[in-house]
Each structure stands twice: as structure tokens, then as C-alpha cells.
Amino acid sequence: MIFDKNTAKKTAEVLLQVNAIKLSPKEPFTWASGWKSPIYCDNRIILSFPPIRNYVREKMGKHIVNFYGKPDVIAGVATGAIGIGMLVAEYLGLPFIYVRPEAKKHGRQNQIEGFIESEQNVVVIEDLISTGKSSLNAVKALKEANINVKGMIAIFSYGFEVSKQNFEKENVTLHTLSNYENLLEQALDTKYITSKELETLSQWNASPSEWNAI
User: Fold this and answer.
1) Confidence of residue 209 (pLDDT cuts 50, 70, 90)
2) pTM for this entry
3) Are strands 96-99 and 73-77 parallel, antiparallel or unpaired?
4) Closest CA to 187 of 22, 31, 56, 49
């Protein structure tokens, strides 16, 4: 769920502004999964724009404290959320760790990088939620290390039904600054897209694996 409507619309606005999110219903992108998609999201781009990255870190930081309470540690999901996660941790004056997709094959073979103690409270930072599998994989690693995961906050979510089901199944609370619904609303309000393109973009979100470009 989003924290509030104003934040959702403003976040969508700045992501579109710096092309962290691109909408192209007529010339769709191809994801690594093979899905054809009229949207491409790379939130790491915001790190190159100080006013926008500061806006995101402050919104995330304030929402974390208001909803979850101040945790002991902030955790970022590698690799996309390492940068923004570290900025949020700095804003809150908290330690930072990050979680790899899997343990390293060499050295200390860590999956969790950084210092954290058993039973400490952590809030996980993610940049983007699609199906939620990689995000929940990080939560699983933390829980297996006997760390108390209070919840997760992400910059943006596509709002797929499968992601909602995955988070509910694992009993993990997720909040996002913005989501697909508010993105489309903002894009239409600012004439970034037309009403016809809105229809196409909505159809994709309802069934992304089966969607074909029109």
C-alpha cells in the first residue's frame, strides 16, 4: 500500500521527470523475463539528482519512523536499493547493511553484508517491486539469521496481483512511496500519456505475462 496520495503523486512526478520511469506503449520494452512491457523502471537514476534523491530518502525515513518506529538497522536489497538504502540509514542516523541475492562463493561467503546482531529490528529498503520474489528472498535471509524484520518500504511497485499474494503469504508488510495506479494518474494529468495510451497501459498491468503491444 502507499503511504499517502500526495506522496504517491509527487514521487511519480519526479520519477517521470528524470526518466527513472519511461512509458512507451507504442514501442514496448522487453524485460529479462521475456515479458513485453510498455514501462521500464530504473530508480537508481535518482541517485544522480541530489534534490530528488534527498526527497526520496527523507520521505522514506519519515514514513519508516511513523509507521514502523525507528529500527536498529536499515537493510538494502542488492543491488538496486543499496544506494538509496544507505542514504535513508544516514538520514535516520542508523547502521546500514545489505542483502545479496545469494551467499558469495568465496571469502566469508556472506549473504548479509555489514554488522547486525541477532534479534535486532530491521526495516528493508527496496527500489522496485515487481513479483516480490527477490525482495522476499532478502527477507528470508534476514529471518534465517534471527533478525526481526519489521517490514519493507519501496520507492515504486507495479502493483501486480502476484506480488500482493507473495507478500501476504510470507506475512511481510510492504509500503511504497508510489505505485502503478498513481503513476498513470499523474502521467495522464500532465499529458505525458493520452487516454488511449492509458487504456493500453492498464491492460498490460492487468495481465503482463500475456500482454502484446498494440
Assistant:
1) confident
2) 0.93
3) parallel
4) 22
Query: 179-185 — which CB contacts under 8 Å span 24+ positions?
Result: 179/2, 179/8, 180/39, 180/205, 182/2, 182/5, 182/8, 182/9, 182/11, 182/12, 183/12, 183/15, 183/16, 183/21, 183/156, 185/9, 185/12
Question: Is residue 41 left, alpha or beta, with left meaning phi > 0 and alpha meaning psi from -120 to 50?
Answer: beta
Domain-located, residue 183:
yes
Most distant CA pair in the chain, distance: 54
pLDDT above 70: residue 105: no
pLDDT at 33: 76
pLDDT > 70? residue 55: yes
Q: How many structural domains does the chain have?
A: 1
CATH code, 27: 3.40.50.2020
Place of cell 493520452: 194
- C-alpha cell recorded at residue 202: 492498464
